[in-house]
Amino acid sequence: MSKDEMFVGWSAETPRADRRFLLGAGLALIAGSGALGARLGMTGVPVGDGIWDQRARHTLRGILSRDPYPILRTRGLGGDVRTVFLTSSGKTAPEIDAAFFGNTADVTGTLITRGRNAMMAVEDVAAPDGFDGADLAAPAAVDRGPVMLAGEILDAKCWFGAMRPGYGKAHKACAALCARGGLPLAFCQIGACGDGTDAPLLLDENGVAFSRVILPLVADPVTIQGRLVAVGDVMQLRASLDSIRRI
Question: Looking at domain 141-246, which CATH architecture does it have?
């Protein structure tokens, strides 16, 4: 054989013992992978049914308010009066001309929804023609009484559906950025952060958005002693900073 020639040898048929071994190993690998996948599926962190549909743009008509966070009160989500929180496409509050607040407006953007909770990533705000929004005026606050709750402080945007999951230690840095950017804070009780659909808006004892002093407590397990207050379709949890304690 010359140095330029090459010989490759192989067996015409895999030995029977090797075939049995390879077949058994393959079947075991498939079964093991399926069992592992099922176990991970059962023990994985629930993310809830929140969704941010960034492909569909919506225009909602209503009254804009800046307190305690930028919101739009509208009938554009099913006919009944609904509160839609407003955000930018990022981790900051939307940039809206101050002249629009307290007046009727058409707000265009993409919707983030979880249960009856709704938030819009604002793309445009315009003044409508001939729209009477008298029935959309801010409702009176109704005190529902004192509560003592254990759970987690969330940023509402991520929990509504912008992130999956939008809670827990892994989400702490993101939640702090959203809170620092002026986005609404909410509160979920222990056991309801993953698959729950209700989380009251978290405000101070006067119904005002917290300042940055609350940032170290975001996404940590805490207890809160405060009061539940209903403002239209939004439930608020009002509490002083001193009433919040890490667990």
Answer: Beta Barrel (2.40)
- pLDDT tens readout for residues 7-33: 555 555 666 666 677 677 777 677 666
CB-CB contact of 149 with 228 (8 Å): no
Identity of the amino acid at 212: R
* 15: CB partners within 8 A, 6+ apart: none
Distance (Å) of CA 88 to CA 24, 53, 162, 231? 55, 14, 12, 24
Structure tokens at 35: 């069992």
- d(Cα 164, Cα 230) in Å, to the nearest integer? 28
* Residues of each domain in the chain carrying CATH 2.40.50: 51-136, 141-246
CATH class of 51-136: mainly beta
Buried b / exposed e along 87-116 (16+ C-beta atoms within 10 A): bbeebebbebeeebeeebbbbebbbbbbee
Residue 20 one-letter amino acid: R
pLDDT of residue 135: 86
pLDDT of residue 23: 72
Measured in whole angstroms, how far is the alpha carbon of residue 47 from the centre of its chain? 9
**DSSP element (H, E) containing 111:** strand 104-114
